[in-house]
Design brief:
single chain, about 140 residues, alpha+beta, Rossmann fold, 2 helices
């Protein structure tokens, strides 16, 4: 059996989740298991302000520009690079894993405490999304 693969807190930096999952499928050996751990996407949509949570972004808005753009860096002679955060839904993650050829064997939402750095209080909402997906032993096995 293959050594398990792991992807943790990567999705918000990936602009093409389908291509990313296909790449994971290629490098994970037949019979291998991929475990994905992401900060739950439902916790990424709120305004960073105290008090009652208010929605800042739609859960379905998949790409948004970061407000704190990069400044000129004399060491690399670069400036004005745009940065984006990607908001992949649970359905997106499941879909792209199966499209790549994985068989999703588990999907769990865990935790519901307030993290010390979270503003507003998101206690009661799921904290982490965990997915486990297997790469079939046989390339001819339909998923």
């Amino acid at each position: 059996m293959s050594v398990p693969g792991e992807s943790a807190q990567v999705a918000p930096q990936v602009s093409d989740l389908g291509r990313y999952c296909a790449g994971l499928f290629r490098i994970l050996g037949p019979g291998g298991r991929l475990v994905v751990n992401e900060y739950h996407p439902v916790r990424r949509i709120w305004k960073p302000e105290p008090g009652h949570p208010r929605v800042r972004y739609s859960y379905f808005e998949r790409c948004r520009e970061r407000e704190e753009g990069w400044q000129f860096d004399p060491a690399t002679n670069s400036a004005g690079l745009e940065r984006y955060d990607y908001q992949w839904t649970i359905a997106d993650q499941f879909f792209y894993l199966t499209q790549a050829g994985f068989y999703v064997v588990a999907l769990e939402e865990i935790g519901d405490v307030r993290e010390h750095w979270e503003v507003p209080n998101l206690k009661g909402l799921p904290e982490q999304l965990i997915l486990a997906a297997d790469r079939p032993e046989s390339p001819n096995l339909e998923v």
